[in-house]
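Structure (tokenized):
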């Protein structure tokens, strides 16, 4: 809000342009004396007073209190939804260019919410393109701007920062960020369903990579249970954007803002759909462990379809490695190998953990075909990748596979070396890498379940 003297001059100018007396402007809620004092800059008007006067003067509260036409902020919000749509289509570099321009505009106009929106968008773009230090920088900046906001408002930048650390191979720190935020939400009484779905879904990946499978399954079930409490009208996002444009051309700024708020919420859900896909992936993983391969294949294909629809290429690898394992166990070797070869052709851009998982599966299939030299090559490549990422649970299992292969080939000393390496990485899931699991939030029954 501007200084009282500046606001007073603005009120006097607008009143004079409309030909209103101080008495006419004041009626029926205030006195002419109050208007006179306000216009002279001797009193700082309350928000309620400014909103009343804005209505009488035919302007917006924002323009009256700051001098910025409301249309500027609305047009900036519209441009942010355009950038969100571009990112959702998979054009991360193009979206980043839009977000950088919008961040500069928001900073020049002093629009805090729009600055946060642009920073979060830049963070998502950097995640998509693998520029992880930049992603962390953008999400941390957004967190600082939201420092005085309730914790649910900060869930998205915290989640983004955790995902960046996860992709950088810092699994324990990613878990710490997500688990501590989940616990804080529960303890504060601010257990917002959307924030919790984002956080629970994001923690599944590091849990799996660290061998905490039971904890990952529990997080997935909690996220899927909360999902019905989160609206997902994604099919009408584009319509809301176009409606907002129409309202703007007609000068209906408030109506345009309302449509943009709906569009922004929807584009936020595109990321939520990515996280829910991870929950379906986890459910498929659990079913595969139980031997229900047909159900596992259905869940994993559902997850992959959701990720593909959102152009979430960076995360699709998680599902495809697991799906390939299910196909291998179903005897569909050619289909499994096709998935894995396509994944490895993309290089390390999709994460060392998942590339390591792909090599492990190709090694298993080669060993089952009797191609032992090829199997050993794949196991060794997988070990190098997993050692980089810190995925100790997978690494211990891989050392066992390699040791068994070498022992059957009569290479006893090499087998013992592989077993010793594996023992150095072996731990019970969650006991040495994680603290206590976050407490589950308490919610009243959802109306849809009654």
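Design, position by position:
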């Amino acid at each position: 809000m501007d200084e009282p003297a500046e606001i007073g001059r603005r009120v006097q100018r607008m009143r004079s342009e409309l030909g209103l007396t101080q008495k006419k402007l004041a009626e029926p809620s205030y006195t002419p004396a109050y208007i006179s004092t306000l216009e002279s800059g001797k009193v700082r008007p309350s928000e309620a007073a400014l909103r009343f006067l804005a209505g009488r003067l035919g302007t917006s509260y924002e323009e009256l209190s700051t001098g910025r036409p409301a249309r500027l902020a609305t047009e900036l919000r519209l441009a942010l939804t355009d950038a969100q749509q571009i990112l959702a289509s998979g054009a991360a570099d193009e979206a980043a260019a839009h977000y950088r321009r919008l961040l500069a505009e928001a900073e020049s106009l002093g629009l805090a919410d729009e600055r946060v929106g642009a920073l979060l968008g830049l963070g998502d773009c950097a995640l998509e393109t693998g520029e992880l230090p930049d992603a962390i920088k953008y999400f941390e900046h957004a967190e600082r701007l939201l420092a005085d906001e309730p914790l649910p408002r900060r869930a998205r930048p915290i989640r983004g920062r955790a995902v960046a650390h996860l992709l950088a191979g810092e699994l324990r720190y990613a878990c710490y960020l997500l688990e501590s935020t989940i616990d804080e939400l529960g303890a504060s009484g601010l257990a917002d369903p959307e924030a919790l779905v984002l956080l629970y879904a994001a923690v599944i990946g590091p849990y799996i990579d660290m061998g905490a499978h039971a904890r990952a399954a529990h997080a997935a079930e909690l996220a899927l249970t909360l999902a019905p409490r989160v609206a997902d009208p994604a099919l009408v996002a584009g319509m809301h954007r176009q409606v907002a444009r129409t309202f703007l051309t007609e000068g209906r700024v408030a109506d345009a803002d309302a449509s943009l708020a709906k569009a922004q919420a929807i584009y936020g859900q595109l990321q939520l759909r990515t996280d829910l896909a991870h929950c379906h992936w986890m459910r498929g993983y659990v079913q595969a462990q139980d031997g229900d391969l047909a159900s596992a294949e259905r869940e994993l294909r559902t997850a992959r379809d959701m990720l593909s629809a959102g152009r979430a290429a960076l995360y699709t690898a998680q599902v495809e490695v697991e799906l390939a394992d299910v196909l291998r166990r179903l005897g569909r070797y050619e289909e499994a190998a096709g998935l894995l070869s396509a994944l490895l052709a993309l290089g390390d851009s999709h994460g060392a953990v998942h590339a390591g998982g792909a090599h492990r599966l190709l090694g298993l299939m080669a060993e089952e075909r009797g191609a032992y030299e090829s199997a050993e090559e794949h196991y060794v490549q997988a070990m190098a990748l997993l050692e980089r990422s810190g995925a100790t649970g997978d690494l211990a299992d891989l050392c066992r596979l390699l040791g068994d292969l070498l022992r059957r080939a009569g290479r006893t000393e090499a087998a013992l070396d592989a077993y010793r390496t594996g023992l150095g990485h072996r731990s019970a899931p969650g006991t040495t890498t994680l603290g206590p699991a976050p407490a589950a939030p308490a919610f009243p029954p959802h109306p849809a379940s009654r």
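Reviewer-requested clarification: DSSP finds 22 helices and no strands in the chain. The first helix runs from residue 4 to 18.
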